[in-house]
Amino acid sequence: MNIKLVFIIIVLCYYESIFSQSSQQIDINNINARINTKGFLFGDPSGSTPGFEAPKNSGIHSINASNLWMGNSTNIAASTFGLITDYSSGPLNTNTAATSQVTQITYDKVWKVTKTEIDYHIGVKTGTIIDPSYSTPTSITTWPAHGDLSQNYSFYLAPYVDVNSDNFYDPNDGDYPKIKGHMATFTIYNDFTNHPLSGGQNIGVEIHQMVYAFGCISDDALNNTIFVEYKVINRSSNSYPDFHFGVFSDISIGNPYNEYVQCDVERNCYYQFNDNSTDTDTGGLLGYGDYHPTQGVLILSGPWMDADGNDNQAFLNPNGLGFGDGLVDNERLGMTSFMHNTGATGSYLGSPSTASQFHGIMNSYWVDNTYLRYRGLGHSSNFEFNTPSKFAYPGSSDPTGYGTSYVPYLSWSKDNSPITPADNKSVGSLGPVTLDPGSVQTIELAYVFAQNTNITGVQAGKDLFIQYVDHIKGLYSNGSLDCTMITNIETKKEENKIELYPNPTSDIITLVLPVSNMISKINLIDNLGRTVYINTINNNETQINLEKFAKGVYTLLIKTNDKVITKKIVKE
Length: 572
Fold this sequence. Notes:
The protein has 8 helices and 28 strands. It has helices at 3-19, 101-106, 115-126, 138-141, 220-223, 355-361, 459-477, 489-496; strands spanning 23-26, 32-36, 52-53, 61-71, 76-77, 88-89, 111-114, 160-161, 176-177, 183-190, 205-213, 225-234, 240-251, 259-264, 269-274, 294-301, 337-341, 373-374, 385-388, 425-435, 440-450, 499-501, 508-512, 519-525, 531-536, 541-545, 552-560, 564-571.
């Protein structure tokens, strides 16, 4: 290594130690989720400790780790939990599908930005907010919008809004990150490694990952969900047939050793839940007691199906998108397989350790290379029907027999199986597709937590989980995945009658609502998405003293007798 390169690396390491952050927290709603570089979600990779705290500030966790798998029987990239992974940080050279040590160091970072920061930035740059002391947050100025063209990286990386359409990201011109939700993280990684986990060959993929959430006290489902969007780009010159994507989740609901698995084929999700006994503390992990939650993963959209010139009908993929809608080649696959394992050494339930085993799990094969059979334990050692199945424990969610060669069978769940509760890991998969050179696939997920704190037992959490899933699916399919949309003209007129004065203010602000909307609760949210003030009141006029708060823009969430209204306040 030459002296110049050493110097560059030292300088980059120095600046990374100041500005870089290899993990961030998504904590704007009822969940506090840790997001790491290299695609490692929700846990601490250095200690394999959980990092999906639900509810927030409870100290209890429902997920240990979750990661994306992808590939075919020879070219596989995967990550489970811990530091051993097939991924490294940063984009790939568009000519060679390789990267450099300098690039890996530069991009070993998770960027985080909130909608509040963006809204304030827009207000200042458009002149609607007068703030001579405004300094653009580093979350906006350092947004990785562009790659280094001189090193043959893609010029366009992180999404942004180009206000003056000059094709260059410049916050001084008013440009800003284009995010989803009210708080989002963004990171870029690739599989340019020796693949120490799977032993598979390099694929040459670059992944752009956005994790986001909505701060929605008015919507319990959104308030208990973390969303993930993966944009997977094949930077190599190779075409990969029989390519699958797998969503690995080490769901650990409090005490992780008393859990069952299940999937819902029609709803396009999988989930885990406890047995009915009290979820006690164990090994330093807090349990959920008698109010058992359900934690699951909802697949909102999967990869594009290979073009075949047809409008493929719904029975070919009943949980996909675009099937049987009259349009040609717009189909996106839903979940095509669901498997689980406990990591038991020497067992068919063991963790995969070779490329063929990782690929096999995404094709409904156990690690001993036997196919999943229907009912019983689903293994050749214990089954009811010697029929290959795509889905383990689908309950009664596959009435058309999609997972059993279109021959419907009896319901299959833990209630009619000798399965015992364990520390289960789940994998929901999507495929096969052909990943051609330059092709882009997008996967969108929702991690849904559901706990009914009014009813003890397991069933209440399961029922609530299904309600949340149906609600989120409805919002997504209608293009209304948000919690501040105005759906009624009269509601909008009523909101316009709200008196909020003076605004901007340096101390006291007065809030008055029409008599028809009695105020019951007020939350004040700062530009980092944190709740800094809560007040429960029973009248239509209240005053808030902002004197002790820092200058900036705050979001006021006003809960009335029939709705939640948001307003912006500027503290001078």
